[in-house]
């Protein structure tokens, strides 16, 4: 084999080893990110205060909610996340919800308001304080974070 061919083979092998190391580092970073996401999800689901995040740029679609919010609404999380208010509530409730969503989007600060959850779910006749805050998602979408404090009946 000629000297030039050995050099080319060495370059190819060196490049392959470098790519392999990059892929291994990327795979490790993905595992760490997945583990951190799982931990954050666990923390949010453990919090006994209802909370959710909606994507205002995607018809106010629910992108996250915790178990406490699902219990409060009376639906499993799988029937909330990925769905919009139109899938979950009646038109009168949606008008009320949407006015608060737009107020949160327009405000530089969190907004808060007292409400009765029976407007959203007949079996949830309880007063609550809602805090809504505009956020920007990693994809640049406008998000709304809502946290709800139960005030009892």
Would you give an account of this structure?
By secondary structure, the protein is an alpha+beta fold. The chain has helices spanning 3-46, 67-73, 85-88, 91-106; strands at residues 51-55, 61-65, 111-116, 127-136, 142-152. The chain has a five-stranded antiparallel sheet. Strand 1 (51-55) and strand 2 (61-65) form a beta hairpin. The longest helix has 44 residues, at 3-46. The N and C termini lie far apart (87 Å).
How many E strands?
A: 5
Report the end-to-end length measured between terminal Cα atoms. Answer: 87 Å
C-alpha Rg, in Å?
Answer: 24 Å
Strand order of the largest sheet: 2-1-5-4-3
Short overview:
Helix content is 46%, strand content 24%. The chain is α+β, with helices and mostly antiparallel strands.
Question: Can you lay out the helices and strands and say which pair or pack?
Answer:
Layout (H helix, E strand, L loop, with lengths): L2 H44 L4 E5 L5 E5 L1 H7 L11 H4 L2 H16 L4 E6 L10 E10 L5 E11 L1
Antiparallel strand pairs: 1-2, 1-5, 3-4, 4-5
Features:
153 residues; alpha+beta; 4 helices; 24% strand
């Amino acid at each position: 084999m000629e000297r030039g061919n050995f050099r080319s083979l060495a370059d190819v092998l060196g490049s392959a080893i470098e790519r392999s190391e990059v892929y291994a580092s990327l795979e490790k970073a993905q595992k760490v990110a997945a583990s951190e996401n799982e931990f954050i999800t666990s923390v949010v689901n453990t919090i006994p205060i209802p909370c959710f995040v909606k994507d205002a740029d995607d018809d106010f679609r629910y992108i996250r909610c915790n178990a406490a919010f699902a219990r409060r609404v009376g639906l499993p999380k799988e029937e909330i996340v990925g769905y919009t208010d139109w899938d979950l509530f009646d038109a009168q409730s949606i008008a009320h919800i949407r006015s608060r969503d737009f107020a949160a989007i327009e405000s530089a600060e969190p907004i808060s308001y007292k409400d009765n959850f029976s407007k959203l779910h007949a079996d949830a006749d309880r007063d609550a304080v809602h805090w809504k805050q505009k956020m920007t998602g990693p994809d640049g979408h406008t998000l709304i974070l809502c946290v709800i404090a139960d005030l009892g009946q």
